Amino acid sequence: MIDKLVFYFQFPFVRYALIVGVLIAMCASMLGVTLVLKRFSYIGDGLSHVAFGAMAIAGLTNLTNNMIIIMPITALSAVLLLRTGQNTKIKGDAAIAMISVGALAIGYLIMNLFPSSSNITGDVCTTLFGSSSLLTLSVADVWTCVILSVIVTALFVVFYNKIFAVTFDENFARATGTKADRYNLLIAVIIAVIVVLAMKMVGTLLISALVIFPAVSAMRLFNSYRSVTICAVVISVVCAFAGIIISILAGTPVGSTIVAVDVVAFIFCYIAGMFVGGARA
Amino acid sequence: MALLTIQNLSLGYESRAIIEGLNFTVNEGQYLCIVGENGSGKTTLMKTLLGLQDPLGGQILIGDGLKKNEIGYLPQQTLVQRDFPASVREIVLSGCQSRCGLRPFYNKAEKQLAADNMERMGITQFANRCYRDLSGGQQQRVLLARALCATQKILLLDEPVSGLDPKVTAEMYSLIKKLNDEGITIIMISHDIETATRYASHILHIGSNIFYGTKDEYLESEVGRFFLRNQKGGEADD
Q1: Residues paired with residue B34 on neighbouring β-strands, in sequence order
Q2: Residue B45 distance to chain A (closest CA, Å)
Q3: Which of A43, B187, B212, B235 is the most exposed place for a label (fewest CB within 10 A)?
Q4: Residue B102: which pLDDT band, with cuts at 50, 70 and 90?
């Protein structure tokens, strides 16, 4: 088995996949805690469907770098979706359902009307489940991912205390002079970036898993925001690493393997949490 | 000049006014209780005072060197907070946020301030405990310590004892009284008229009739007598 791994690691695309996978998993899990606690778990899902639609539109334009289209559309939707959380006519969950399903339908429609290749079903499946695109990364893709990950991480660390304050009690933060709207916007944009990045790895359908599972697992085990966040990142990185290795060895699809490992990790944490925090209801 | 001067204030949602023509002042060291029936706009008034909501008309003037971000606030608990994985220390420290400005991390002085306020509220022993594991009264103390980190001067409390049992309620009230004796101005929403009249120095009654004055004036007034009788009658019926 070791031999097989060593053999595979001679190929640069395997190393790229590992680097990118681990970085994306790290970024996705960082904000997971905030999203779960703010009751925005579903926003990742909604956004990924928007990204799917955006990708279909980008396919029409024949641009080499479709990020230019996907990223702004997704970021804009993130801002709109987070805004619905506050007193608007359409409730947040309904808005997410509307936007995500609408984008999914339109995306699929566009792909069918203007097929870019003969194998539409294959294309759609690739976009939804990531499939092997993680193994076809170019050097430029890897650098884009590294740079964006560094920016996301830096923003998160610098605004960590403010994100905490806004997550825990938005009204208090606002009343004492923190510009809560600005940080909500920041959170929305960061999520959009993460979703677009993660799309390559796990596909649009499974992105939420990367965001939610590590956070919920960590919340079973730890009691402070900081330790939960750190634990979520560690769980996520370990699961992504393990998932990629398993998928290489066993020849399984990368995205779903990573998510499956996340599910297993959650079950472990859930059981461990019952023993650690037995008193907690 | 008073800490807060409210002039001809109108409140409400989407241009539908709940209260109109509200005038009162809050001076340093006062203990003001806001009372009134459910739905009379008590929370709306507090949100407007905090700047979370724009008034429909009128003005809120801030004086005596009080800054906009020096108002401490004890909100009603939200669902999100009930199972929030955060330690007591983290939450109390987040009260110092407004002091930071754009600086990303808390400095020594702020950490000390948080520690002092935890001591003041008697929750130092819980510093590393998880917020969601504490009892209702302990959680309120944590939020009070956080509010104290944000202010030295004025505290706004929104139903600080809702959901607490009688013993903890009494402790909470005496704690608030102690803060008032230490010189912190208190503005509190309460549906508990008895405690309001026991502790407060001034009463603001809002609803169809608006009354503002000292506690004794309130007890003598038409509005006050009627409301007190109703409240007590209502409780006897339960």
Answers
A1: B189, B204
A2: 13
A3: B235
A4: confident
